[in-house]
């Protein structure tokens, strides 16, 4: 198989790859142009007590600025899709509003990033929300996007992956990576079973290997940053 080296980090990638599988940098001019469009967006920092810098305000989003493809309905969340063993599919939303809450190791809020765009990218040096001090993040790490009224997360070929914490039973598929405890990934080879987080302190997460669906209260880990998703009106609806 023919390979080409990333000019940024030197990692060998497939010739047809758009982004480096190690550092997340674009490998082609077309990918670089799409990344530049996405990086122009802004993440509104609503409030913070401490933490990294937020990105700038943004112009209107273009659909699928990074990969240029339409995400199919096959994408499932950590507990959604693959039968009744996975979690319920979140309600559809008519707007693109969401808030990402940066949570500390003590479960306290560090910062809140309010977004009202169709896509939100996260990275160390590129993206709408940036954490320049996090060496575990790739330059352009992951993307959240609204697809047909549902919020989805996609890993952009990052070095350390994008992790989605379980909120219900999850049927494993071959090749799934599981995060249990303190940064301990376990590869699932025999995938014919259902994984359940039995009220653990730190949770159990699944590596995003394509597209995973998020909803109000979902938690994702990018680099060493834990982010909680808040959707407007979802908390009030749950109390009714």
Strand order of the largest sheet: 3-5-4-18-17-10-15-12-13
For the sheet with most strands, the description reads: 9 strands, antiparallel
Number of domains: 1
> Roughly what percent helix?
under 10%
- Beta content comes to 25-35%
Keywords:
Tumour Suppressor Smad4; 18 strands; 240 residues; mainly beta; 31% strand; five-stranded mixed β-sheet
Would you kindly provide a brief summary of this structure?
The chain is mainly beta and 240 residues long.
What topology does this entry show?
Elements: E1 3-5, E2 12-14, H1 29-39, E3 44-48, E4 98-103, E5 109-115, E6 119-123, E7 129-130, E8 142-147, E9 150-155, E10 162-165, E11 170-171, E12 177-180, E13 185-187, E14 194-195, E15 204-207, E16 212-214, E17 219-222, E18 225-230, H2 234-239
Parallel strand pairs: 6-7
Antiparallel strand pairs: 1-2, 3-5, 4-5, 4-18, 6-8, 8-9, 9-16, 10-15, 10-17, 11-14, 12-13, 12-15, 17-18
Give your account of this protein's structure.
The chain has a single domain (18-69, 76-239), classed as Tumour Suppressor Smad4 (Sandwich). The protein is 7% helix and 31% strand. It contains 2 helices and 18 strands.
